[in-house]
Write a structure and sequence with these properties.
Length: about 120
């Protein structure tokens, strides 16, 4: 049986469809798969942008780069441990979701997976 038909409560595969709902034979739990999918999507959107440690980032936060990053047009790049103040969260731009200004580098985009909140 496919994974979507498993009971979300007890993870049993002994389920059946009753009109619009699915019913588990083992625990008698009833659920609507489309409503369950909406809940999961809303939770992931509510989480927002997270850093490498799982902390939620917001506009104006101060972060630290955790890995040496190469930057186009620069011979040195961004070193690990560089503090970045006053970040701005943006819509996904080529995988980058943070817009910031780094001293001696200027404005650039960062990926949230390479920073941690300070």
């Amino acid at each position: 049986m496919s994974n979507e038909n498993k009971c979300p409560k007890c993870n049993s595969e002994n389920t059946y469809q009753d009109v619009a709902l699915w019913v588990c034979l083992e625990c008698a739990h009833e659920w609507n798969p489309s409503a369950l999918a909406k809940e999961v999507e809303e939770k992931s959107q509510a989480k927002g942008v997270i850093d490498s440690n799982g902390n939620v980032l917001q506009d104006g936060d101060c972060v630290m780069v955790i890995k040496d990053l190469k930057a186009k047009g620069s011979s040195s790049g961004v070193k690990a441990g560089t503090k970045v103040k006053n970040i701005k969260l943006i819509e996904d731009y080529n995988g980058h979701n943070i817009s910031c200004k780094i001293d001696s580098m200027g404005e650039m985009y960062l990926k949230s997976e390479f920073v941690r909140k300070v």
